[in-house]
Design brief:
By secondary structure, this protein is an alpha/beta fold. It is built from 14 helices and ten strands.
Amino acid sequence: MIRLPHGSGGVREYSPRPARPTAPAGGPLTSRTVFSAAHVVADPYADTTPDSPAAVDWDATLAFRRHLWAQGLGVAEAMDTAQRGMGLDWAGAAELIRRSAAEAKAVGGRIACGVGTDQLTGPADLVAVREAYEEQLALVEETGSQAILMASRALAAAAQDPDDYLDTYGHLLRQASEPVILHWLGPMFDPALDGYWGSSDLDAATSVFLDVIAAQPDKVDGIKVSLLDARREIDLRRRLPEGVRCYTGDDFHYPELIAGDEQGFSHALLGIFDPLAPLAAEAVRTLDTGDTEGFRKVLDPTVELSRHLFQTPTRFYKTGVVLLAWLAGHQDHFTMVGGLQSARSLPHLARAYELADGLGLFPDPELAESRMKSLLTVHGVHQ
């Protein structure tokens, strides 16, 4: 038994479940292209402050990427799940990209890396924004990784109208040597991105986004949409030029979006697949056989955990992701760069543990229980 706090100020007893048998890792996934955005593991021994440059445990960070590749998933590197712009600065992200790209080559893993403008430290004009994007694009391409053009806080601040987005992205797509993934991250993930594409009206913003793609569809491998609006994503993917993929970033509706309908489906680039990697891979391998019902049977029960981790303020979902990595034995501590282990309440973390345990996500339930009890004890919930 473990005593878990709940939001009303009390505690309740919970009985952890035995380990869930998981399907053995197999070959590549075939019916969908699936990326997991991956978290970084902080160095718990570093003497840092929340404002200090990130201190990363590189061995543990790269080991977790090997875990994702072993499941058959691709790695989406240096994205918001890696605390990009929330503890991980550009210098840290650049080192992460270099190291992860080298590791991907060594093990034959698929990798795509985030390209942004976070080396800019203050107000910037459009020229500076474009040059910052170019610097990061060049680094990612030099490593041999696919580029993901991320939404830019600096561009959102500098752009005056939709034409500024069309010009900036048009230039970057011409510069790219290989097709890229365009990333539309909604303001629920980053409030500084409100009004991206030149309008807070999502219909108007979608039109601009589609214009960017239509201008150079051969330079766009796909789009990653993180708006937590399944209807809008389905409408958007149906309007994409032929050959341009939709990678769902919707951590609320991913089973139905990946399963698709008679008019198409979404691939995936998801932060929730960081903790769900074994189940995600099992589900997609089931889908590879044409068994959509079996796919939904595996993945649908995970949505409650995902919605819990991504509840508002959504940008703090990384705290739950790292908690689950620690409980599952992928790292030795619950410490995050920027001190973000404190960004969620104890009842929130307790519920995350309970939901993950119910899904059988912990390879060693006794280890997870022991670690969760130690965290609770530190916070005054004695077992």
